[in-house]
Amino acid sequence: MIRKLLSIFFLSQMFLIGWAQQTINDLGVNAVYDQAMDYYKKEKYNTAQKLFQQVYEAEKVNDSEVKSFSQYYIAQCAVRLFNADAEFLTMEFISNNPNHPLINEAYFNLGGYFYAQKNWTEGIKNYNKTDWRNLSEEEQAEFFFKKGYCYFEKGDMETAKLNFYEIKDKRTKYTAPALYYYSHIHYQDKNYQTALEGFLKLSEDKTFGPIVPYYVVQIYYMQGKYEEVVNYTPGIINNVTETRLDEVSRITAESFFKLERYSEAKTYYQKYLSASNNPAPEAIYQLGYSCYKTNEIDTAIVNFAKISHLESALGQNASYYLASCYIKKGDKENARKAFASASRTDFDPVIKQDAMFNYALVTFEIGGDPFTDAIKSFEDYIVAYPAAKNIDEANRMLVQSYLAARNYKSALASIEKIENKNDELKEAYQRIAYGRGVELFNNAQFVQSAEMFKIALKYRGFNQQREAGAIYWLGESLYRQGKYDEALQQYKLFKDAPAAHTLEEFVMADYNMGYAYLKKDSYSAASQSFRQFTSNYKGDRNIQSDACLRLGDCYFMQGNYSQAVDFYQKALDNGTEAKDYALLQKGLCLGLGKNELQKIATMKQVAENYPNSVYADNAYYEMAQEYVKLQDSQQAIEALTTMYSKFPESELAGKALVQLGLLNYNADNNEQAIKYYKLAVSNYPGTDEARDALFGLKNIYIDLGKIEEYSAFVDGLGGNVPRLSINEKDSLSYFAAEKIYMSANCPEAKKAFGTYIANYPSGNYLINAHFFKGDCHYQAKEFDDALKMFDFVVQQPKNKFTEQALLGCARIAVSAKNSEKSVEYYEKLAKVSSSELNKKEALLGLMRTYYANNNFNKSLEKANDVLSLSNISEENVKEAKFIKARSLQETGNELMALDVFREISKEVSSPQGAESKFRVSEILYNQKKYDEAEKEILEFSSMNTSHDYWIARSFILWADIFSERKNYFQSIETLQSLIDYYENKTDGIIEMAKARKVEVQAKSAKASEGAQQENMEVNIESNK
């Protein structure tokens, strides 16, 4: 179809050309020229141009009028058709006919051509070549307007204005647009009266009349004629176009605002905000202020909050009035943030000062100040405004802030700056130091806590209970450092303190003194303290039973076995968690008291009721000892056999084998005796038990007359197991080294043990030598050498040094951050340990190592193992529960983790408690339970904690909650509070807050983005 149409077009053009040539031939040049002019006048420029072209080419006389006029109209047709060659053809005409009377017209029309093409530079160029005096009146009007408009678009307003001026008062089709732009330029130049007069003349103009009212309103406003504005706009507001409604509404609103007619201003501001996609901050502020003045506080808050983040005088004022609104509503927390924002900038010094004081005051009134903002703010205020009228009140409030401080660390650092302290400050100092001491104690920082309690005792006479408490906790801090004599001294001072009896710690002093005496092996004094405690204490049954256990231990160590039995039984009656230990100790006392059968019965209770107890092997062994005393060898053999089969890794296993060998030997069961002796020698080389077993074997083989078999057995021990020799030639060398070690001369002991190991590679005392040498290296922090020694011990069959060597290896691996080896050693220790303490350390070490390496499945498993232990400290319970909760959280079990975190977070003085409080709010936030998360954060901030990092993390989370609610002001202010007041510059909090602030500001900016106002375009041609 397209090809067919193109063919028809081509044929028609050929016909036209042919017809034109025929006409030229038939009619002559002049007749065709007349036809071309006729087509030109009818605006059929394509046809006209072709005919003019034929005339131009047919005319042989170059300087004839017909030829020159034809060339002119060829160019004009191109101009009218906006052909690309219009300029070329025009300039060719001018070049060929330099004196032609239509050259001026050619420049004028070419200027119009470029005007229509919006090529303002070329338009100006051609209009400047045009002599306007040779143009008709109508052409002159077009000339001045279009030339002026070209200058207008080029930004040359003065020249544009001169051209518009030429025709603004004449009656032409260009008069109205010329007057409009002339007035518009004067409006831009702030010549408002001239502009106003021009615009008023256009009020009835069809094109510009609808635009005029906008200028009139603006000019009245710029002239400060607010009454004229509010009288004028109501008459036009209903006819205002949608694109101009926001502008007119805003001017009207601001005029009412200037006239302090706030209720009417509010109405028009609301119209403006509804109509505008990008409302001006000033209008939002004034609407907020209008609502504030008319007591519409909620609406005022909404509008002030939108602009309070601006770094300007407007933003500062908005923040200040926003704070005032929150005060009226009783919302002090948000008022505090708004005052902080207003005090942060210097645009209005009066507002800055007032906001600064009110920020500190409201922060104090709220309480729960986690970063001691109130203290710092009052201090800053006093320094910045020493001559302020309210300076006395500021000083008084500073003291009150110290007394109310919850962040003792920061408060202490602040109050220590004050050299001359009055009595009020001294009391505040004492209270803060005491609180800080308790915090440090709860965090196991006992050296530091002791110093704080000493500071608390520096100023006396203010609070006797607090002074007594400081003495008690000083004693506790010293006890935890192993300074038992000093601790006892403080406990005694505490008991004599006037107000001590009013404290709940009073009765606990005897309990703690009992432990201090135990540590000093002062069993008589310890028993007196524990008995005093049990007589007075009526609290926790676990503590009561523990005191009974310790009394049992004291009497046991003093040889008063009947008394010991009584207290071990009291511990059992009180429901002690250490029932296996109490029974074992009771049984031992019964045995020592010659009650063999009762001892056996008691040991059976331990073995049968607590088969997994670390004391079960002891119970079997002790049972066997009583059977031996009763000369019941068979029962003794059964007890020892059962013990060895169940606990082959026990430290008592070697002794059990030797005793089994001896019992079977005495029963003439030489085959069994040889079997057990050989097991002892092979499994426990280098030990006393191995030597005893070898000696027993020797006696049996001598009795049997098979000394050759004995020799063959000894020779067959091989090099991998240290060979035991009947002739113990190495004894003197080893015991000489051991003597040096026992004298605590480790440098010489290391050399002596080293010599022994080198000289006796199969010596009888290799295990001892390696362990003691390793211990010396460990004490000297020569961990690589210590590890080599300990590892040798660990690689041998279990011996009396195995557990301690494993502990040393594990601790060295932990300090070297070798998680793989620490896990290996701790796993072995947990498996072979016969000590509750060592097993606890192994499980704790495994739990911590797995957790530190993000192996949360294993850390969860080990945390549960730790929690299953009895008699673990409160600190260890808390740590295990925390790691359990974090492991649950990291493995996707947030609901289960939440329950555990809630339990731990009841106190926040420990690092685990503080982080748990944050994790509770974090999980609630992840569940989009923003109200609940916020409640947790507020509760956290009101609790006493020194763990600023987790409080800060909670505040960042709080900012996220505000952001989710699209309350960007509160979000930004919360983050800014951290940026301003958080003291630690290296833990990443400030960087985190700054980054989050940028994100929230971007969200805020995006939320307030709107379409830009449309540019006003006027169609001049439609005004013809």
Describe this structure in words.
The protein is an all-alpha fold. The chain contains 54 helices and no strands. Helix 19 runs antiparallel to helix 20 (349-366) and helix 50 runs antiparallel to helix 51 (930-941). The longest helix has 26 residues, at 2-27.
Radius of gyration: 51 Å
Structural class: mainly alpha
Strand content: under 5%
N→C terminal distance: 42 Å
Main pleated sheet: none
Keywords:
disordered N terminus; 74% helix; disordered C terminus; elongated
Strand and helix map with partners:
Blueprint (H helix, E strand, L loop, with lengths): L1 H26 L1 H13 L3 H14 L6 H16 L5 H11 L6 H14 L3 H9 L8 H18 L2 H11 L7 H14 L3 H10 L10 H11 L3 H11 L5 H17 L3 H14 L5 H13 L3 H11 L5 H17 L2 H12 L5 H18 L6 H12 L6 H14 L3 H8 L7 H20 L3 H11 L7 H17 L3 H13 L8 H15 L3 H14 L4 H17 L3 H13 L5 H14 L3 H14 L6 H14 L3 H14 L6 H14 L3 H14 L4 H17 L2 H9 L15 H12 L3 H14 L6 H14 L3 H13 L6 H14 L3 H14 L3 H17 L3 H12 L6 H17 L3 H11 L6 H16 L3 H12 L6 H17 L3 H14 L7 H19 L17
